[in-house]
Amino acid sequence: MFNNTQSSSRSFQAIRRALFTLSFTGAAMCTAMMPAVANAAPPAQQKTQVPGFFRMKLGDFEVTALYDGYIDLDPKILKGASAKDIQNLLARMFLDNTPGVQTAVNGFLVHTGEHLVLVDTGSATAFGPTVGAMLGNIRAAGYEPAQIDTVLLTHLHADHSRGLLTADGKAAFPNAEVRVAKADADFWLDEQIAAKAPEAAQPMFKLAREAVAPYVAAGKFKTFAEGEALIPGVVVSPSPGHTPGHSGYLFTSKEQSLLVWGDVVHNHAVQFARPEIAIEFDIDSKKAIASRKKVFADAAKNKLWVAGAHLPFPGIGHVRAEAKGYAWVPVEYGPIRSDR
């Protein structure tokens, strides 16, 4: 038996040596037969970004952030601090300001189960080739513009309302009712007010009138007064100052709430840390600052989800109170979860 065991061991060792030799020889042959690609050039760089949408659950609602593009804003339009202070705040967040600070333009699509609601429509062609991706990203997110039944505008500035139109000037959302605060419509759509405005501001009035014109003609443009009910699960949250009727919209489902706040913030690096810093686009900067401070305090206290038109995409997150000022806490990318 001992001899048999030794014989088996020797046979096993011989088999291992043979297999090793065979595998080494085969690997060498395969290597020799492989095409010489080590020095080949890689394919061309793609130079495109992924589609601009991001989804999250809010109770039974589904929220889709939509990227329209970006605008480079000159930091000189921020008012209420020295240029050095503003540059330091930008540098602290590693923000480049050449040729300007890259500033996102976002919209938000909320599926309530009963309604498909779009808050703000982007810029379309109003500010050049770096914006205007809203319609394409709605489709990339799985919807068609014709399926949207309600468009809520935070205000009538062109980077929020001009996306109401297609490239040929028709209604981009043909089945939607468009709503905006009466105070904003009374200001931006009044030709007498426009005529008295500074010449540099008059194009903004014209862009607003043109944006809503197809909906006015179809009887689908309606204003609302403060406190007026819109649709179930949505409450108007007035924040005047940036424009006369500037408004956010508070969406609530199963005790979870998201405030889509429009232009409460234009620059996250500066205005969270220093809420008293305004922007020259504000119609009434004192009111805008007061609104921003109130919104920040409420959002931090109540731990609201918030969504901003000019926050870095997807523009959704929380506001955290600091010893001095506030901080922006962006949403974490992840799967769509129904257990939260």
From TrEMBL:
Every Metallo-beta-lactamase domain range: 104-310
Alphabetized InterPro entries for the sequence: MBL_superfamily_lactonases, Metallo-B-lactamas, RibonucZ/Hydroxyglut_hydro
Alphabetical UniProt keywords: Hydrolase, Metal-binding, Signal, Zinc
Superkingdom in the source lineage: Bacteria
Secretion signal, residue range per the UniProt entry: 1-40
Cross-referenced CDD domains: OPHC2-like_MBL-fold
Pfam families: Lactamase_B (PF00753)
This protein's record includes keyword Hydrolase: yes
Record family assignment: Belongs to the metallo-beta-lactamase superfamily.
PANTHER family in the record: QUORUM-QUENCHING LACTONASE YTNP-RELATED (PTHR42978:SF6), QUORUM-QUENCHING LACTONASE YTNP-RELATED-RELATED (PTHR42978)
Identification of the protein by name: MBL fold metallo-hydrolase
Originating species: Archangium minus
Lineage: Bacteria, Pseudomonadati, Myxococcota, Myxococcia, Myxococcales
